[in-house]
Amino acid sequence: MTASFSEVADPLAAFRLDGRVVVITGASSGLGAGFARAVAAVGGRIVLAARREDRLKALAEDLRGTGAVVVPQVTDVSDAAACAELVETAVAQFGRVDVLVNNAGVGGAVPATRESPEAFRQVLDVNLVGSFLMAQACARVMLPGSAIVNVASVLALVAPRFPQAAYTASKAGLLGLTRDLAQQWSARKGIRVNALCPGYVITEMTEGDTDRLTPVIEGNTMLRRFGLQAELDSALLFLASPASAYVTGTALTVDGGLTAL
Which of 94, 132, 167, 226 is catalytic? Predict the structure, then answer.
Protein backbone atom coordinates (compact mmCIF):
# COMPACT_ATOMS: atom_id res chain seq x y z
CA MET A 1 0.00 0.00 0.00
CA THR A 2 1.42 3.39 -1.03
CA ALA A 3 1.79 5.95 1.75
CA SER A 4 -0.13 9.16 1.38
CA PHE A 5 1.67 12.50 1.28
CA SER A 6 0.48 13.30 4.80
CA GLU A 7 2.12 10.11 6.05
CA VAL A 8 5.53 10.84 4.59
CA ALA A 9 5.74 14.61 5.08
CA ASP A 10 4.11 17.57 6.75
CA PRO A 11 1.83 19.04 4.03
CA LEU A 12 2.27 22.53 5.46
CA ALA A 13 6.02 22.30 4.89
CA ALA A 14 5.38 22.42 1.14
CA PHE A 15 4.19 26.01 1.52
CA ARG A 16 7.45 27.20 3.10
CA LEU A 17 10.19 29.05 1.24
CA ASP A 18 13.08 28.50 3.63
CA GLY A 19 16.31 29.65 2.02
CA ARG A 20 14.68 30.43 -1.30
CA VAL A 21 15.45 33.75 -2.96
CA VAL A 22 12.31 35.67 -3.91
CA VAL A 23 12.34 38.79 -6.08
CA ILE A 24 9.23 40.94 -5.61
CA THR A 25 8.56 43.93 -7.84
CA GLY A 26 6.18 46.73 -6.93
CA ALA A 27 7.11 45.95 -3.34
CA SER A 28 7.03 49.40 -1.77
CA SER A 29 3.29 49.40 -0.99
CA GLY A 30 -0.04 47.65 -1.44
CA LEU A 31 -0.13 43.98 -2.34
CA GLY A 32 3.61 43.90 -3.00
CA ALA A 33 4.51 44.98 0.53
CA GLY A 34 2.02 42.47 1.91
CA PHE A 35 3.48 39.70 -0.25
CA ALA A 36 6.95 40.56 1.07
CA ARG A 37 5.78 40.16 4.66
CA ALA A 38 4.14 36.83 3.83
CA VAL A 39 7.26 35.51 2.08
CA ALA A 40 9.40 36.60 5.04
CA ALA A 41 7.06 34.76 7.42
CA VAL A 42 7.70 31.45 5.65
CA GLY A 43 11.47 31.80 5.50
CA GLY A 44 12.13 33.36 2.10
CA ARG A 45 15.10 35.63 1.43
CA ILE A 46 13.76 38.67 -0.34
CA VAL A 47 14.92 41.14 -2.98
CA LEU A 48 12.54 44.10 -2.89
CA ALA A 49 12.13 46.22 -6.03
CA ALA A 50 10.14 49.39 -6.63
CA ARG A 51 10.60 52.97 -7.76
CA ARG A 52 10.01 54.71 -4.41
CA GLU A 53 13.29 54.46 -2.54
CA ASP A 54 12.06 55.82 0.79
CA ARG A 55 9.16 53.36 1.01
CA LEU A 56 11.39 50.51 -0.12
CA LYS A 57 14.01 51.17 2.54
CA ALA A 58 11.37 51.56 5.25
CA LEU A 59 9.84 48.18 4.39
CA ALA A 60 13.27 46.54 4.28
CA GLU A 61 14.07 47.83 7.77
CA ASP A 62 10.68 46.69 9.05
CA LEU A 63 11.23 43.19 7.69
CA ARG A 64 14.76 43.00 9.04
CA GLY A 65 13.30 43.74 12.44
CA THR A 66 11.44 40.42 12.20
CA GLY A 67 14.64 38.57 11.35
CA ALA A 68 14.12 38.46 7.60
CA VAL A 69 17.00 38.67 5.15
CA VAL A 70 16.15 41.50 2.74
CA VAL A 71 17.86 43.48 -0.02
CA PRO A 72 16.05 46.54 -1.45
CA GLN A 73 16.84 48.01 -4.85
CA VAL A 74 15.21 50.89 -6.69
CA THR A 75 14.06 49.52 -10.04
CA ASP A 76 11.96 50.66 -12.98
CA VAL A 77 10.73 47.41 -14.52
CA SER A 78 10.01 49.09 -17.86
CA ASP A 79 13.80 49.50 -18.26
CA ALA A 80 15.48 46.29 -19.47
CA ALA A 81 18.86 47.32 -18.09
CA ALA A 82 17.35 47.99 -14.65
CA CYS A 83 15.71 44.54 -14.65
CA ALA A 84 19.00 42.88 -15.54
CA GLU A 85 20.77 44.86 -12.81
CA LEU A 86 18.17 43.76 -10.24
CA VAL A 87 18.75 40.12 -11.07
CA GLU A 88 22.52 40.65 -10.96
CA THR A 89 22.12 42.09 -7.46
CA ALA A 90 20.07 39.09 -6.36
CA VAL A 91 22.69 36.66 -7.65
CA ALA A 92 25.54 38.69 -6.15
CA GLN A 93 23.86 38.77 -2.74
CA PHE A 94 22.36 35.29 -2.61
CA GLY A 95 23.85 33.29 -5.47
CA ARG A 96 20.51 32.48 -7.07
CA VAL A 97 16.91 33.45 -7.86
CA ASP A 98 14.20 30.91 -7.06
CA VAL A 99 10.97 32.89 -7.31
CA LEU A 100 9.87 36.01 -9.17
CA VAL A 101 6.70 37.80 -8.14
CA ASN A 102 5.84 40.17 -10.98
CA ASN A 103 3.71 42.60 -8.99
CA ALA A 104 4.71 46.04 -10.29
CA GLY A 105 1.73 47.76 -11.85
CA VAL A 106 0.10 51.08 -12.63
CA GLY A 107 -3.37 52.00 -13.83
CA GLY A 108 -6.25 54.40 -13.65
CA ALA A 109 -9.83 54.98 -14.74
CA VAL A 110 -9.92 57.13 -17.88
CA PRO A 111 -12.53 57.02 -20.69
CA ALA A 112 -10.93 55.51 -23.78
CA THR A 113 -11.79 58.54 -25.92
CA ARG A 114 -9.74 60.73 -23.58
CA GLU A 115 -6.82 58.41 -22.81
CA SER A 116 -3.67 59.58 -24.56
CA PRO A 117 -1.51 57.13 -26.53
CA GLU A 118 1.40 58.01 -24.23
CA ALA A 119 -0.58 57.15 -21.10
CA PHE A 120 -1.82 53.90 -22.66
CA ARG A 121 1.71 52.86 -23.58
CA GLN A 122 3.03 53.73 -20.13
CA VAL A 123 0.60 51.31 -18.49
CA LEU A 124 1.54 48.53 -20.90
CA ASP A 125 5.25 49.29 -20.48
CA VAL A 126 5.05 48.69 -16.72
CA ASN A 127 2.35 46.05 -16.39
CA LEU A 128 3.06 43.87 -19.42
CA VAL A 129 6.45 44.71 -20.92
CA GLY A 130 7.95 45.08 -17.44
CA SER A 131 6.69 41.66 -16.44
CA PHE A 132 8.24 40.15 -19.56
CA LEU A 133 11.58 41.88 -18.98
CA MET A 134 11.72 40.69 -15.37
CA ALA A 135 10.73 37.14 -16.31
CA GLN A 136 13.32 37.07 -19.07
CA ALA A 137 16.10 38.30 -16.78
CA CYS A 138 15.20 35.86 -14.00
CA ALA A 139 14.74 32.87 -16.30
CA ARG A 140 18.33 33.24 -17.49
CA VAL A 141 19.61 32.38 -14.00
CA MET A 142 16.79 30.26 -12.51
CA LEU A 143 17.32 26.57 -11.85
CA PRO A 144 14.74 23.79 -12.24
CA GLY A 145 12.12 24.01 -9.52
CA SER A 146 11.86 27.79 -9.74
CA ALA A 147 8.59 29.67 -10.09
CA ILE A 148 7.29 32.88 -11.63
CA VAL A 149 4.03 34.42 -10.42
CA ASN A 150 2.54 37.16 -12.58
CA VAL A 151 0.08 39.30 -10.64
CA ALA A 152 -2.73 39.97 -13.10
CA SER A 153 -6.34 40.90 -12.24
CA VAL A 154 -9.91 39.71 -12.55
CA LEU A 155 -10.22 42.49 -15.11
CA ALA A 156 -8.22 40.24 -17.41
CA LEU A 157 -11.20 37.89 -17.34
CA VAL A 158 -14.31 40.08 -17.14
CA ALA A 159 -15.41 43.50 -18.34
CA PRO A 160 -14.43 46.21 -15.86
CA ARG A 161 -17.04 48.29 -14.09
CA PHE A 162 -15.05 51.47 -14.79
CA PRO A 163 -13.24 52.70 -17.94
CA GLN A 164 -9.81 51.07 -17.72
CA ALA A 165 -8.79 50.15 -21.26
CA ALA A 166 -5.02 50.29 -20.75
CA TYR A 167 -5.06 48.45 -17.44
CA THR A 168 -7.45 45.77 -18.68
CA ALA A 169 -5.47 45.23 -21.88
CA SER A 170 -2.22 44.95 -19.95
CA LYS A 171 -3.60 42.37 -17.53
CA ALA A 172 -5.26 40.31 -20.27
CA GLY A 173 -1.94 40.35 -22.11
CA LEU A 174 -0.23 39.15 -18.94
CA LEU A 175 -2.39 36.02 -18.93
CA GLY A 176 -1.35 35.28 -22.50
CA LEU A 177 2.28 35.88 -21.58
CA THR A 178 1.91 33.52 -18.61
CA ARG A 179 0.65 30.68 -20.80
CA ASP A 180 3.35 31.20 -23.42
CA LEU A 181 6.26 31.36 -20.96
CA ALA A 182 4.92 28.30 -19.15
CA GLN A 183 4.88 26.44 -22.46
CA GLN A 184 8.44 27.51 -23.24
CA TRP A 185 10.04 27.04 -19.83
CA SER A 186 8.13 24.50 -17.72
CA ALA A 187 9.50 21.35 -19.35
CA ARG A 188 12.70 22.72 -20.86
CA LYS A 189 13.91 24.77 -17.90
CA GLY A 190 11.82 23.42 -15.03
CA ILE A 191 10.42 26.90 -14.33
CA ARG A 192 6.72 27.03 -13.52
CA VAL A 193 4.87 30.18 -14.64
CA ASN A 194 1.43 31.05 -13.28
CA ALA A 195 -0.75 34.10 -12.80
CA LEU A 196 -2.60 35.34 -9.74
CA CYS A 197 -5.81 37.26 -10.48
CA PRO A 198 -6.95 39.32 -7.49
CA GLY A 199 -10.39 40.83 -7.28
CA TYR A 200 -11.03 44.04 -5.38
CA VAL A 201 -8.80 43.97 -2.32
CA ILE A 202 -8.40 46.54 0.43
CA THR A 203 -5.03 48.20 -0.12
CA GLU A 204 -3.62 51.71 0.09
CA MET A 205 -4.96 52.31 -3.42
CA THR A 206 -8.55 51.26 -2.71
CA GLU A 207 -8.90 52.59 0.83
CA GLY A 208 -9.47 56.12 -0.45
CA ASP A 209 -12.06 54.99 -2.99
CA THR A 210 -14.30 52.73 -0.90
CA ASP A 211 -17.39 54.94 -1.25
CA ARG A 212 -17.38 54.47 -5.00
CA LEU A 213 -16.25 50.85 -4.99
CA THR A 214 -18.37 49.40 -2.17
CA PRO A 215 -21.67 49.31 -4.14
CA VAL A 216 -19.82 47.65 -7.03
CA ILE A 217 -18.32 45.03 -4.74
CA GLU A 218 -21.53 44.30 -2.88
CA GLY A 219 -23.52 43.98 -6.10
CA ASN A 220 -21.01 41.98 -8.13
CA THR A 221 -19.33 39.46 -5.82
CA MET A 222 -20.81 36.37 -4.22
CA LEU A 223 -19.18 37.20 -0.88
CA ARG A 224 -20.33 40.85 -1.13
CA ARG A 225 -17.17 42.31 0.34
CA PHE A 226 -13.63 43.38 -0.44
CA GLY A 227 -10.86 40.84 -0.21
CA LEU A 228 -8.13 41.10 2.41
CA GLN A 229 -4.37 41.08 1.99
CA ALA A 230 -4.07 37.82 3.93
CA GLU A 231 -6.49 36.14 1.51
CA LEU A 232 -4.16 37.02 -1.37
CA ASP A 233 -1.03 36.10 0.58
CA SER A 234 -2.07 32.47 0.93
CA ALA A 235 -2.72 32.19 -2.80
CA LEU A 236 0.62 33.82 -3.61
CA LEU A 237 2.48 31.45 -1.30
CA PHE A 238 0.77 28.46 -2.94
CA LEU A 239 1.91 29.49 -6.42
CA ALA A 240 5.41 30.48 -5.29
CA SER A 241 6.13 27.39 -3.21
CA PRO A 242 6.60 23.65 -3.87
CA ALA A 243 2.95 23.22 -2.81
CA SER A 244 2.03 23.99 -6.45
CA ALA A 245 4.70 21.80 -8.03
CA TYR A 246 2.21 20.37 -10.56
CA VAL A 247 0.65 23.73 -11.45
CA THR A 248 1.86 25.77 -14.42
CA GLY A 249 0.42 27.88 -17.22
CA THR A 250 -2.75 28.73 -15.36
CA ALA A 251 -4.39 31.59 -13.46
CA LEU A 252 -5.58 31.39 -9.87
CA THR A 253 -8.51 33.75 -9.35
CA VAL A 254 -9.13 35.12 -5.85
CA ASP A 255 -12.08 37.47 -6.23
CA GLY A 256 -14.89 36.60 -3.82
CA GLY A 257 -16.90 35.11 -6.67
CA LEU A 258 -16.87 38.16 -8.94
CA THR A 259 -16.01 36.26 -12.12
CA ALA A 260 -18.63 33.58 -11.39
CA LEU A 261 -21.58 35.99 -11.55
Answer: 167
Nearest residue to 144 via CA among 183, 105, 111, 192: 192
**Owning domain of residue 157:** 14-253
Does any domain span residue 87?
A: yes
| CA atoms 86, 46, 93, 18: torsion sign | negative
132: in domain: yes
Residue 258 forms part of a structural domain: no
Q: pTM value? A: 0.94
Element (DSSP H or E) covering residue 196: strand 192-198
pLDDT at 2: 39
167 catalytic per annotation: yes
For the segment 18-38, the average pLDDT, to the nearest whole number, is 97
Report residue 103: phi and psi, to 5°: -110, -15
Between CA 189 and CA 208 the distance in angstroms is: 43
The angle formed by the CA atoms of residues 49, 55 and 57, to the nearest 5 degrees, is 70
pLDDT in tens, 87-135: 999 999 999 999 999 999 999 889 999 999 999 999 999 999 999 999 9
Write 213-220 long-range contacts (CB < 8 A, 24+).
216/161, 217/256, 220/161, 220/258, 220/261
**In-domain check, residue 3:** no
Structural domain total, the chain: 1
Return the CATH number at 114. 3.40.50.720
